[in-house]
Amino acid sequence: GRISPCCSTVLTIRPTKMLARRLAIALPQTPPSVANRVADWCTHEFRVGRYRYLMFCNTTSLYPVVSYARGVNDEHSLIERLVDALQASLTGADLEFQFRRQIAPESAVVQWAPIPDKAILGSINDMINMTRYSLENRDEAPADLSRWLARSPMSVLGGNSPDRVFPRLGR
């Protein structure tokens, strides 16, 4: 794979057990070490009506990226969807540096890991519930929902919002 000038050369993806099972992804029993917190993402699948969506969240900052799940049926399509969704979301939110310097180079090598704890999973579920409400009651695109969620304060972040925490990770 390519070598990143500043960090490890691995993109870490942490699917929920249910999503990992559906996509036939084997999660390791012992979580691997993660050197690049910007390139460490959890993912969970959910439905609203007839449509499937993916919620990607940075593991440390909980920065959310909502994407359609249509066509994601194995680990390769999940990786591709994550990278595409991150590129679309981060370049549109003045976070292009984080994507170009700390995520894109990492996507050549991927490691799978379990979601580290229930607090993170609970926060992801909270964001999914907020997203469900918005999708059912308003007509918003996933990218707009991602930016709205990123501005929401989170108790697990000490009342901070993901859009304030995420840019500081790579420093």
Describe the structure.
The chain is of the alpha/beta class and 171 residues long. The protein is built from six helices and five strands; from the N terminus they run E-H-E-E-E-H-H-E-H-H-H. It has a five-stranded mixed β-sheet, with helices on both faces. Strand 1 (11-15), helix 1 and strand 2 (40-48) form a beta-alpha-beta unit. The chain is globular, with a radius of gyration of 15 Å. The model is unreliable at 1-8 (pLDDT under 50).
N→C terminal distance: 24 Å
Question: Helix and strand succession?
Answer: EHEEEHHEHHH
Radius of gyration: 15 Å
Helix- and strand-based class?
A: alpha/beta
What characterizes the major β-sheet?
5 strands, mixed
- Globally, the shape reads globular
Strand content: 15-25%
Strand order of the largest sheet: 4-3-2-1-5
- Unreliable stretches (pLDDT < 50, length at least 5) are 1-8
Helical segment tally? 6
Percent of residues in helices? 25-40%
The pLDDT mean sits at 85
